[in-house]
Specification:
Blueprint: E1 6-13, E2 18-25, H1 30-37, E3 43-45, E4 49-55, E5 61-63, E6 66-72, E7 75-80, E8 82-84, E9 87-92, E10 95-98, H2 99-105, E11 113-117
Antiparallel strand pairs: 1-2, 1-3, 1-4, 4-5, 6-7, 6-11, 8-9, 9-10
Length: about 130
Amino acid sequence: MSDRFRFRTPIYRVDGKFKRFEIWHCEDGFFEVARTLLVDDNATFGRSEQCTGLKDKNGRLIYEGDIIQHDTVAGLMRWPVLFKNGCFVLPYESGDAWLGKVIDNCPYESGVLVVGNIHENPALLEDTYDK
């Protein structure tokens, strides 16, 4: 099965704090996953996020909602992976950049790295990304 058809659904506690991800494949179907989670009545589901099918420099799969970091001429920067207009992008100040092109053309040895996600580590974006 292609990684591109993997999804993750954030699960939150009743108080709104992130609890965990539920990873599922398109062929599994979300309803099957949801049925197995119904025993946990103290949880709520977030919006499912799709895998990009791309990997960072360490071989880690990149999902929508992950926080990506790489060197730029302005220094080390971080961006959330967004799904906009049918593709996965990083919201650069100069305009959205297609994630696949950023990974393929990153001119720095540090490469592109997943450093967290918007559910567990939103503070990673505070200094480097103007929402």
